[in-house]
């Protein structure tokens, strides 16, 4: 039976751990991968993170091999094919784990307990176990052997992105942490830094954080703004457009590619820039809608954060794990049957600006979701830097997946944990917004404001502009994007 | 009447040929013929005055009166004058034909001749012997003779060459006044000398008329300019950047040695036990049909193919798979391919694209130095894109993007430059632009080129090693 580690800690420590987060400058990585040079890194699992992190680490000059569960090797599953075709050594736990200096656990979170229990007895004395997400440690209270160092290196991006950015000569923002209970030789941080360097993360920015802050903020971001909000928004906006007589192919396309297009503006200049892309009347409209949405959804965001903090969320999900993922699989099937998901995008041209002009409600939803998630996380003690990465920063990355193959692709790319949280959010949010949606017309979704409402009140515009720019997510965003822009002029 | 050349092939002395020329000069048009030296520009213009022996095809509606000003015409006239001397059996030394006679005998329009003599201020030499004139002076005389012959067509071959500044500017003002009376065909090598009234430009290379561009087709006109620029200017490769200088290689060692390499995907074998050794200063052409593994083979060298870790590969002194990082390998390689161009969809400036070559990155993630900016601007000038450094890359034409990526690959003076089908997807003009640039790079000594291609017609001077995959 699992034991929530976070809940076992005294409040003082809980708060200290939640508040741990520091942006590391690239100059803090003068030793590169030296701490891992010549050491054997063995990756368990060759999926999205496993394969792509491994490719990067090897290209950085490190010794990487893969261990897979026996069945995957015997049946030559995709994971086995990925590893062998990429020229990696593949072996069983018994063959490779005892030789490993670092074991990278990159299996699905759901499997961590069984996987770690299987490999731990085989691990060398004094070796290092690493994760890319702290769920197992924080929510399940996994106890790791005392002589082992436990670290986390968590790229804040899907695996495909981890590789693509490395190949371009860059990297993705990465969060690193050391599990305080398991740092017997005090080398955890050094190893985590070298590992992050090997994946290219140091170029895009490394956040030194804690297992707890990573888990509590990661869960919050993914289930609310990142996946939940986009899923709910997609379904509601599509249904509204159909109700309003907008062409179904157009509606489908506006949403599928609209999220990607409007959130692209976030990368450059945050929420402010996204709204600055609108005409003045449309901007004020989006602002007002977002305020209204925030009022309605705040309680739901709070509930998600509370459930995450108390461990209620993870125990609910783990109950579903124990029940063969009945809920998850059911919800996944339901999503596939929604009208939005079933309607292919039309082949009409939609210009970049048109996605903004005709997607005012979508923009309002992104703004409301980003700000609420950020406000809720920081109110719960999570440091703004971390809250920024888990909300605003990742939104365009998830939006890209919807552009590829709608909600199916998004839910396939994110972890099962994120997917489960996303459906939870969606089920609560759709009914919550029912009344609000009754008042929505195609002027804010599908057709755009008519040209004759072009007048705006100066005082109101100034007020809106000031409010946009002074939101705390914009302040920290400007700083962090500034760090990035030092290196990444082009994003 | 429209002058028509249909599939016209014509032979000149010394065997030079103009081949399969298709060209029409309509009334009211004025053409410039341009091209590199020896391309056949002058020959093409001379054809309009009836020069050359027709081999096949046809040329129709040549006007009766064609005024020709060219070095050849000038030389002929002078030769004829000298011959008169030889022919003179008397001991008296002949004075030769005076300029007055050269100009006014058979002159259709003496009034124009007088006018021009005044404009050129040539009164003082009317009584001198033509053959005693300086080159510049005799040029003016020929010019007056041609202009005063009431021609229907004026052929002006490099007419601005060898004229003093005053005469040049006088002529530049005078020619436009003729434009609505007589069709003009000028041979010119410099775009900045093309007069306003010119309506079309023809580009000649190796005796073929390769491009015909309307003056007001801005895009093609600009490309033609670039092509000529690349073909005619000397390639002064901008210097290396001392801050990112790549380590010296042992010149005795091959750049690349692949020993019995294989690439396998599951049961499928793409390459089987292939050996390949590339020595410093060798240029290679790699060919083979689609799917024969050309790109995969190259990516073993660049380190982009994951199976480079399971093959016996030595690149730039590194035996692969011994803890070297991919960036240590990439620093020695410049690389251009269509795939790279697709990847490079970023909205960054032309300058930054070139600078990214110093860092082997797609996009620029490092602060760059003034020196690097300066080098990038020099490369842009070399490509005929001076002053466009801040323009966005993704707004460039496809062909210009390709050129820029080649410059990006060359900016660090890599020991090895890999060009994977660099002409793929380019139209004819851009293909020639790219080939012109590559030829210049091959002519330099410090970079070995691997050129991948399956079009035999795109062969490149200077490449003499071949590897063909099946
Ligand atoms: N996806 C993201 O965006 C993201 C971002 C940051 C961090 N992470 C974290 O990275 C970790 C890996 O996630 P992922 O998305 O890469 O997972 P994934 O794509 O689902 O891959 C999981 C791999 O583990 C293997 N596996 C599954 N069950 C196993 C078991 N019981 N025993 C041993 N191996 C098993 C699978 O191969 P076989 O089934 O063939 O054995 C597969 O290769 C997670 O902790 C996740 O939270 C993910």
What's the short version?
The complex is a heterodimer of chains A (491) and B (470). With 491 residues, chain A is of the alpha/beta class.
Description of the structure:
- The complex is a heterodimer of chains A (491) and B (470).
- Chain A has 491 residues and is an alpha/beta fold.
- Chain A folds into two domains: 21-209, 3-Layer(aba) Sandwich (Rossmann fold), CATH 3.40.50.720; 213-487, N-(1-d-carboxylethyl)-l-norvaline Dehydrogenase, domain 2 (Orthogonal Bundle).
- Helices cover 61% and strands 8% of the residues of chain A.
- Chain A has 24 helices and nine strands.
- Chain A has helices at 11-18, 48-59, 70-74, 78-85, 93-96, 112-119, 135-138, 159-167, 188-198, 201-204, 211-243, 248-276, 280-310, 312-322, 326-336, 339-342, 352-357, 360-379, 384-393, 395-413, 416-432, 434-438, 458-470, 472-487, and strands at residues 21-24, 40-44, 63-67, 90-91, 102-105, 128-131, 149-155, 174-178, 206-209.
- A nine-stranded mixed beta sheet of chain A has the order 1-9-8-7-6-5-2-3-4, sandwiched between helices.
- In chain A, helix 2 links the parallel strand 2 (40-44) and strand 3 (63-67).
- The longest helix of chain A is centred in the middle third of the chain and has 33 residues, at 211-243.
- The radius of gyration of chain A is 23 Å and the shape is globular.
- The model of chain A is unreliable at 486-491 (pLDDT under 50).
- The longest helix of chain B is centred in the first third of the chain and has 17 residues, at 71-87.
- The radius of gyration of chain B is 28 Å and the shape is elongated.
- Chain B has two domains: 3-232, P-loop containing nucleotide triphosphate hydrolases (Rossmann fold); 242-468, P-loop containing nucleotide triphosphate hydrolases (Rossmann fold, 3-Layer(aba) Sandwich), CATH 3.40.50.
- Chain B has 470 residues and is an alpha/beta fold.
- In chain B, helix 4 runs antiparallel to helix 5, helix 7 (218-232) runs parallel beside helix 14 (428-443) and helix 11 crosses helix 12 (370-382).
- In chain B, strand 6, helix 6 and strand 7 (183-187) form a beta-alpha-beta unit.
- The model of chain B has no long low-confidence stretch (mean pLDDT 87).
- The A-B interface holds A 33, 37-38, 55, 58-63, 81, 85-88, 167-170, 203, 486-491 and B 265-266, 303-304, 306-310, 323-328, 343, 346-348, 352, 356, 359-367.
- The structure holds NADP nicotinamide-adenine-dinucleotide phosphate.
- NADP nicotinamide-adenine-dinucleotide phosphate (NAP) binds at residues 44-50, 68-69, 72, 77, 79, 106-109, 111, 114-115, 132-133, 154-155, 158-159, 414-415 of chain A.
- Residues 44-50, 68-69, 72, 77, 79, 106-109, 111, 114-115, 132-133, 154-155, 158-159, 414-415 of chain A line the site of NADP nicotinamide-adenine-dinucleotide phosphate (NAP).
């Amino acid at each position: 039976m699992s034991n929530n580690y976070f809940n076992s800690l005294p409040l003082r420590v809980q708060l200290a751990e939640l508040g741990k987060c520091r942006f590391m400058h690239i100059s803090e990585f003068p030793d590169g991968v030296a701490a891992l040079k010549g050491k054997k890194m063995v990756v368990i699992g060759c999926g999205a993170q496993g394969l792509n992190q491994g490719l990067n680490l090897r290209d950085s000059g490190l010794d990487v091999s893969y261990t897979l569960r026996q069945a995957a090797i015997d049946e030559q599953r995709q994971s086995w094919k990925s590893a062998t075709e990429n020229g990696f050594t593949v072996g069983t736990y018994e063959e490779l784990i005892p030789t490993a200096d670092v074991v990278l656990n990159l299996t699905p979170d759901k499997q961590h307990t069984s996987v770690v229990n299987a490999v731990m007895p085989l691990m060398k004395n004094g070796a290092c176990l690493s994760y890319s997400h702290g769920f197992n440690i924080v929510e399940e209270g996994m106890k790791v052997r005392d002589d082992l160092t436990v670290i986390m290196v968590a790229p804040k991006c899907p695996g495909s992105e981890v590789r693509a950015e490395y190949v371009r000569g860059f990297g993705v923002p990465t969060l690193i942490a050391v599990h305080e209970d398991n740092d017997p030789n005090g080398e955890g941080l050094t190893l985590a830094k070298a590992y992050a360097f090997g994946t290219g993360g140091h170029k895009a920015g490394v956040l030194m954080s804690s297992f707890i802050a990573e888990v509590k903020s990661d869960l919050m971001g993914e289930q609310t703004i990142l996946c939940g909000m986009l899923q709910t928004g997609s379904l509601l906006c599509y249904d509204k457009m159909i109700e309003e007589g907008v062409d179904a192919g157009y509606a489908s396309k506006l949403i599928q590619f609209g999220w990607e297009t409007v959130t692209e503006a976030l990368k450059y200049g945050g929420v402010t820039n996204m709204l600055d892309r609108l005409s003045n009347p449309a901007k004020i409209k989006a602002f007002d809608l977002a305020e209204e949405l925030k009022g309605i959804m705040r309680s739901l965001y709070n509930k998600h954060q509370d459930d995450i903090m108390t461990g209620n969320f993870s125990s609910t999900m783990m109950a579903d794990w124990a029940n063969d993922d009945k809920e998850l699989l059911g919800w996944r099937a339901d999503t596939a049957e929604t009208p939005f998901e079933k309607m292919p995008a039309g082949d009409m041209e939609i210009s970049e600006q048109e996605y903004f002009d005709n997607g005012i409600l979508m923009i309002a939803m992104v703004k409301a979701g980003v700000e609420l998630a950020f406000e809720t996380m920081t109110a719960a003690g999570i440091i703004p830097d971390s809250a920024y990465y888990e909300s605003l920063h990742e939104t365009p990355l998830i939006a890209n997946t919807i552009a590829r193959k709608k909600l199916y692709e998004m839910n396939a790319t994110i972890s099962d944990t994120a997917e489960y949280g996303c459906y939870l959010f969606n089920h609560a949010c759709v009914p919550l917004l029912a009344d609000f949606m009754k008042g929505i017309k195609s002027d804010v979704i599908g057709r755009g404001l008519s040209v004759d409402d072009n007048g705006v009140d100066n005082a109101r515009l100034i007020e809106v502009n000031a409010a946009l720019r002074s939101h705390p997510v914009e302040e920290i965003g400007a700083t962090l994007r500034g760090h990035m822009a030092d290196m990444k002029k082009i994003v | 009447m429209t002058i028509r050349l249909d599939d016209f092939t014509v032979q000149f002395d010394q065997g030079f040929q103009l081949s399969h020329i298709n060209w029409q000069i309509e009334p009211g048009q004025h053409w410039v013929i341009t091209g590199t030296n020896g391309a056949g520009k002058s020959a093409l213009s001379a054809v309009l005055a009836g020069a050359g022996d027709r081999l096949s095809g046809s040329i129709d509606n040549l006007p009766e009166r064609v005024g020709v000003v060219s070095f050849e015409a000038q030389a002929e006239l002078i030769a004829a004058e000298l011959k008169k001397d030889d022919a003179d059996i008397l001991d008296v030394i002949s004075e030769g034909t005076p300029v007055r006679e050269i100009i006014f005998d058979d002159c259709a329009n003496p009034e124009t001749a007088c006018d021009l003599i005044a404009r050129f201020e040539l009164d003082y030499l009317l009584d001198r012997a033509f053959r005693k004139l300086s080159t510049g002076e005799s040029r003016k005389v020929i010019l007056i003779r041609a202009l005063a012959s009431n021609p229907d067509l004026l052929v002006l071959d490099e007419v601005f060459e060898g004229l003093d500044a005053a005469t040049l500017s006088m002529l530049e003002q005078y020619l436009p006044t003729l434009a609505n009376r007589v069709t003009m065909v000028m041979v010119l090598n410099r775009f900045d000398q093309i007069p306003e009234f010119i309506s079309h430009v023809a580009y000649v290379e190796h005796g073929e008329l390769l491009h015909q561009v309307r003056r007001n087709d801005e895009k093609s006109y600009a490309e033609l300019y670039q092509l000529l620029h690349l073909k005619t200017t000397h390639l002064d490769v901008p210097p290396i950047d001392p801050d990112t200088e790549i380590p010296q290689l042992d010149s005795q060692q091959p750049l690349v040695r692949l020993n019995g390499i294989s690439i396998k995907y599951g049961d499928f074998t793409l390459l089987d036990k292939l050996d390949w050794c590339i020595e410093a200063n060798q240029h290679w052409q790699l060919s083979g049909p689609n799917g024969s593994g050309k790109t995969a083979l190259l990516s073993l060298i660049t380190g982009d193919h994951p199976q480079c870790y399971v093959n016996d590969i030595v690149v730039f002194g590194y035996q692969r798979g011994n803890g070297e990082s991919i960036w240590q390998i990439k620093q020695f390689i410049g690389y251009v391919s269509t795939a790279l161009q697709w990847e490079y969809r970023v909205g960054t400036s032309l300058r930054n694209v070139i600078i990214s070559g110093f860092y082997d990155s797609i996009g620029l993630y490092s602060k760059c130095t003034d020196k690097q900016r300066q080098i990038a601007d020099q490369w842009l000038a070399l490509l005929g894109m001076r002053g466009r450094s801040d323009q966005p890359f993704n707004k460039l034409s496809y062909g210009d993007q390709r050129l820029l990526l080649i410059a990006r690959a060359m900016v660090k003076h890599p020991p090895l430059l890999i060009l994977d089908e660099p002409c793929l997807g380019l139209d004819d003009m851009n293909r020639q632009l790219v080939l012109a640039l590559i030829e210049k790079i091959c002519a330099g000594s410090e970079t070995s080129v691997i050129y991948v291609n399956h079009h035999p017609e795109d062969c490149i001077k200077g490449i003499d090693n071949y590897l063909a995959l099946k």
